[in-house]
Amino acid sequence: MDTKPNTKLYYDTNEVAEIVGCEASALRFWETKFPQLNPKRDARNRRRYTESDIEIVKKIMHQTGKQGRTIKGAREQLRRKEDAQLMIYKLSRVRQFLAELRDNL
Q: What is the pLDDT of residue 5?
């Protein structure tokens, strides 16, 4: 078994479908319903998914499959999680700033 880390930067639609276990048509459909899923396009207009895109697909599959959410519900849940992650990041930056300020007093 090959344990070398994956060095591939981009995956095509069929590769992603195989990785996550869904149909390629589902990926194209989700791309229209989830603004978070926006794979890059190459010069020939083929979709090129990154590892980050694949993680989003896995989250969509989890929300719609295992959690039983509708497309609208899954989209809202993903948006809320993004908002929460952004808020955590901003608060950690404020905390870091305040700690530096305290140390400089």
A: 56
The structure tokens listed for 79 are 């948006």
Ordered by start, the domain boundaries in the chain are: 13-104
Class (C level, CATH) for 13-104: mainly alpha
Q: What is the pLDDT of residues 46-72, one digit of tens each?
A: 999 999 999 999 999 999 988 889 999
Write out the DSSP string of 7-63.
----B-HHHHHHHHTS-HHHHHHHHHH-TT---EE-TT--EEB-HHHHHHHHHHHII
| Secondary structure letter of residue 65 according to DSSP | I
Nearest to 73 by CA among 39, 83, 32, 65: 65
45: left (phi over 0), alpha (psi -120 to 50) or beta: left
- Please check the confidence at residue 2 and state whether its pLDDT lies above 70: no
